Amino acid sequence: MQIICNNCASGFLYKKMNMMYNNPFMWNLIPADSFLCLMLNWDNINFDKIDFPDKTPKKGIDIIIDSKIIIRYIHILYDKKAIKPIKNFVDVYYYKPWEYALEKYKNRCKRMFETKEKPIFLIVDDDTYSTVDTVRHDNSIEILQKLNDKNFKYEIIWATKHNIDSKLFSNLNLKIIHPKSQYVGTVADYIIENKII
Fold first, then answer.
1. What's the rounded Cα separation, in Å, for the pair 166 and 145?
2. How far is CA 95 from CA 56, 86, 100, 173, 196, in A?
3. CA 152 – CA 53 distance, rounded (Å)
4. Which range among 4-13, 116-125, 181-190 shows the weakest confidence by mean pLDDT?
5. pLDDT above 90 covers what percent of the chain?
6. What percent of the chain has pLDDT over 70?
7. Cβ pair 63, 50 in contact under 8 A
8. Which helix (H) or strand (E) holds 146?
9. Helices 184-193 and 9-16: crossing angle, nearest 10°?
10. What is the largest CA-CA distance in the chain?
């Protein structure tokens, strides 16, 4: 199973299901425009073409895929005292966080290519985070409208607290779910308990 998510819900989901992280989209935030680009171009992305931006975010490490998609590993953190990676639940502290992020990215990409499973995209309305570039409810609607217009072929799960008429997105293989909160752990629990995947 390949769950590709715009935030850490996929990391919680894999962890709670005791599954190996088999794609690089775990414990990250993906900005709305990058997530749309990732979905629209999934079959044509060069996942081997990666770069680090000049500007480092305050929290985490950014990786740019194929010169157009930003993923932010928000749980890989710089700590000049950590000469070996130190794990604290999902956070990892290390004096070489870029090296650690790159290693994880490459290993998980390798597993993703080996499994050759179709992706299931999980969009979580990220109204709880304060960062400007996360996928919020209005971004989710915009993403889904654009995918609907393109007859997007992959399965999508949308976790939202809003009531939505699924007929608006009739060209999509879309499941709309309503967990009791948008907290990523709650979203993962809801998906498991209700056997959504």
1. 11
2. 14, 10, 9, 43, 39
3. 30
4. 181-190
5. 54
6. 93
7. yes
8. helix 137-149
9. 50
10. 54
Reported as a single tens digit per residue, the pLDDT across 61-84 is 999 999 999 999 989 999 999 999
Buried b (16+ CB within 10 A) or exposed e, 141-166: bebbeebbeeebebebbbbbeeebee
Distance CA 35, CA 38 (A): 5
Three-class SS state of 97:
helix
CA separation (Å) from 166 to 7, 109, 163?
A: 23, 33, 9
Q: Is the dihedral of CA 35, 37, 38, 42 positive or negative?
A: positive
23/3 Cα distance (integer angstroms): 8
**C-alpha R_g of the chain:** 16
Six-digit token string for 75: 């749980």
| DSSP E strands, 95-148 | 119-124
Domains and CATH numbers, the chain: 2-44+102-193 (3.40.50)
pLDDT digits (tens, 9 = 90+) for 110-138: 999 999 899 999 998 876 655 556 677 78
How far is the CA of 22 from the CAs of 6, 14, 49, 147, in angstroms?
16, 9, 18, 25
